[in-house]
Amino acid sequence: MISEADNSAADGAQNAVAQTRFLEGWGFHQKGEFARAEEKYRQTLDLQPRHFDALHLRGILAVQKAAFAEAVAWIEKAIAVAPANATARFNLGVALEKQGQLQAAADSFGAAAELRADYADASYQRGNALRMLGQHGAAITAYDKALQIKPGHADAFIDRGISLWQLGQAEAAVESYDQALRLRPGSVEALINRGVALRALNRLPEAIAGFNQAIAQKSEHYGVYINRGAALTDLGDHTAALADFDKAIQLRPDNANAHLNRGVALADLGRNEAALASFDKAIQLNPAHVDAHFNRGGALVDLGRRAEALQSYEKALALDPLNADAHWNMCLCRLQVGDFERGWVGHEWRWKVQKQPLVSRSFVQPLWLGDRPVRGKTILLYADQGLGDTLQFCRYASLLRERGAAVILEVPKALVSFLTGLDGVARVVAFGDDLPTFDLQCPLGSLALAFKTDAGNIPKPGGYLQASGKAREGWRARLGPKTGPRVGLVWSGNTRHRNDRNRSIPLADFVKMLPPGLDYISLQKEVRREDQDVLRTRPDIRQFGENLADFSDTAALCDLVDVIVSVDTSVAHLAGAMGRPVWIVLPFNPDWRWMLERSDSPWYAAARLYRQRRLGDWSVVFNEVKADLRGLSAASFAD
């Protein structure tokens, strides 16, 4: 029989051997000899199965070998021996995170932080796990705790900025990145993320300056070229943007996003065949790239290949059925080719397109889409898009009155006086004014759907608006006696319009289609700076922009000219809605409402359409308009 004293001595000797084996293992571990270290840790545990350090470090070795499930098992055994050890809880979190068990990792990091009040990295790593889970508010709380302990933790400021950005707090994100850069000047990660946030805030020169700094620090970082290219695209410098995307592709030829962005830049430059090739390359690299399929559709539309474009939009929607941009562009394409039935249904997706400048409203009154009787009801129709759309769709008010409804029309202030008296409207109010009581509501842009409009049943194509007699007589006196045909001119629209670069024409080019001998009246309220110099050299073009108080004045001028020559802008709709002869010059890929090929419009009987034959080439259009203007004669247009 062995005595208790003898047992104690034996245990002590065994423990001493175990500790020796452990220290040998730790020495190998520190030198990177992982296999020999693991063997020594195994020997340690054979002698002393609850040796905390051996259990813990076997877990660390497993992490280093990327055997994460094994790592979790060993570290959990170590924690069973020493539950209050914060370092083990932290390392368990690392192993769990590597396994993709993010919530468990966050909990383990949190436990480590609770066990050791000064454990900044535990709170920081908890924040990272929560951020990857999409729990950005909780992540920020964890980052803030880490920064309270360690105010100089630059990485915490960077990752905190990422979570703020994800929450839509771009300004706060920039401030967090600024803090990181004060601690770590020249941090490429902070500079890039800061630039992305600045771009979202439309602080483009600052964003580009930051990207330039990042490139100076790390010129071979492909991501910074993609982001700088995107900011240059926003500035309209598509050539410089293209150079950046080319550089990104040079650094990472297999990056689908770089090819996508290159395609966007090429499309912006009007190089749609090359853009299409870039989108195809992006899809080859990533067949599930929704944006590549979507943008491919846009390039095909610009090339006039609309059936193929619809197929690309359908592929995008198969991958992402709720993609509002794809639904919207598909609807525009369908309306353009005359598929009104499906087009109007898709038109309702406009509310979900982020870049659409819509006036979204919230009313307790039910939305009316033709699905219930309106007799005896008061319905609010409100403008939800631009001035041209308002003028185009306000015609439906008379159809509602015919069904027995009282119609209130809410429009921008510039249209109130002109639309007062519109057939079918009981009252016109301006945006921001108090609304009277009403029972139902409908945005103007949804009325075509509500009335199941097709090309053959558009109401009142011959005209439904008219100038006031008082305004007309005032402008007649201002213009003076008529000595020959008068031609109203509109050559540019709103610079913020998504297709303005294609639809507006510099005045220096526009005047090339104006033969001498006619009385030209500018209907432009605002003249761009580059056009003002040209206008000063053309005394034959009379300009009254500062005297055009609202659309009542513009309508009076439309009534006093014999024909209006206009690009696709609100004045074209105004003239068409008044039944005035209007010649509309259209880009190769026109707005949906002008459809394709035809020289007339089902929306406006008095409109004549002149279409580009090739993208960006106005020469044929100019020759046709000039020939038709020369055909005007004084005798044909008596006052």
What attributes characterize this protein structure?
639 residues, alpha/beta, Rossmann fold, six-stranded parallel beta sheet, four-stranded parallel beta sheet, 31 helices, 56% helix, elongated
CATH architecture of the domain at 469-637: 3-Layer(aba) Sandwich
What's the CATH H-level superfamily name of the domain at 469-637? Glycogen Phosphorylase B
* CATH class category of the domain at 469-637: Alpha Beta
Largest sheet: 6 strands, parallel
Distance between the termini: 133 Å
Note poorly predicted spans. Answer: 1-5
Query: Fraction of residues in helices?
Result: 55-70%
Strand order of the largest sheet: 7-6-5-8-9-10
Shape: elongated
Tally the beta strands.
Answer: 10
Percentage of residues in DSSP E strands: 5-15%
Specify the number of helices.
31
CATH topology of the domain at 469-637: Rossmann fold
Secondary-structure class: alpha/beta
Which whole number gives the mean pLDDT?
Answer: 92
From the alpha-carbon coordinates, what is the Rg to the nearest angstrom?
A: 35 Å
